[in-house]
Amino acid sequence: MEGRGDRTKAPLSLQDRRRRIDVKAKAAPSWCFWGLYGHSCTQETLREASHLAKANHGARGLDGVTCEASAASGVGAFLAPMPDALGTRTYHPRRLRPKATPKEGGKGIRRLSMPTIRARVVQGALQLILEPLVAADCQPGSYGSRPQRSAHDAVQRVAEAMVQDKPRVLDVEFQAYFAKSQHPLV
Question: How much is the pTM?
Fold first, then answer.
């Protein structure tokens, strides 16, 4: 007789996990997802988030650690304490490093806040898990800040609509939104 403890279940890969979230979110828009935070704490999700943070070539945070320095000690060593700290909710991000850069055309300065590499990895892990859920709510014709969508894709869609005699295009830009809005983390 087989008991519950005798069953083995292969762990889901990050790709499978994201695909399942995407399929469920599209099939049942009112479904309440539970346990998403736990998925972001897995070693595989954190490893992929670390890879994405390194590929982005971000600047150092307040702790002074660069992507290269974190990789020099080994990705495994860098990520080792993170699942436990996230799982026990003892992880706390460090303060952001302020940085001012000149705006294009010399029209003032842009104030940026640089998170640490570790904070970027945590943010990336959460994004990897939440992205398919949020993307399921987006309209098919929405192209802004969407994965695997570009301005070129939007132009192509407009060209196809024009050929089909659908001349309406909605283009919305929030001019200087981030310069005028309140930021809770800054």
Answer: 0.73
